[in-house]
Amino acid sequence: MTEEEQLLKEIAGKDEEAFRRFYGRTVRPVHSYILSLTGSSQEAEDVLQETFLKIWTCAGEYQPKGKPLAWVFTIARNQCYMRFRERKSRGEIGLEEFEGREEGRNCPQIEQAPERQQLLWALSQLKEEDRQVVLLYAAAGMKHREIAQSLGLPLATELAKYSRSMKRLQGMLEEQKNLSKK
Asked: Which sequence spans correspond to the domains of the chain?
């Protein structure tokens, strides 16, 4: 059992000190990940609070699998999607922005240049964990060692996932570029 898993077990028993330690160990990568999804510092702070509240109330539901932060990132992603759905239902965001994020494109809404649309499409084609690795490195600015630790992966595995994902993205973007020339 990892240290984070032990802390989650203690949090399930409503141990506030364990929660403080877990928060201190995980807040940076979780915040970075949420920021890469929302693209807004204010919204990221709100979702971060909701995520850690959910961790406090649902820690007992965690099934030890050696990847507690992957579980936390899933909660964070779900909290982001719930927020996007709420905003959409109130008419605060357009259907295009919501659908782009809902499909897992995970990038802040900025000018929709053709190159950006192609990148978002290519990112959406990656497996969830591969997309997390790329976004945590490229959008959140985390180091490979931090990403590996956060996702419960050996550093070599994280590096391989990053390298394969970047090659795959490059290949898809090249293919799109060649298709647009025809």
From this structure: 3-181
Residue 21 phi, psi dihedral angles, 5° rounding: -65, -45
pLDDT tens readout for residues 46-101: 999 999 999 999 999 998 877 788 889 889 988 988 888 887 777 765 434 444 44
Nearest to 48 by CA among 28, 25, 18: 28
Other C-beta atoms closer than 10 Å to the C-beta of 74 total 13
C-beta separation of 148 from 155 below 8 A: yes
Sign of CA dihedral 151, 156, 161, 167: positive
CATH number of 3-181: 1.10.1740.10
Is residue 23 predicted with pLDDT exceeding 60? yes
Q: What's the Cα-to-Cα distance from 31 to each of 45, 73, 96, 128, rounded to whole Å?
A: 7, 10, 25, 18
**108, 1 in Cβ contact below 8 A?**
no
Can you give the pTM of this predicted structure? Answer: 0.63
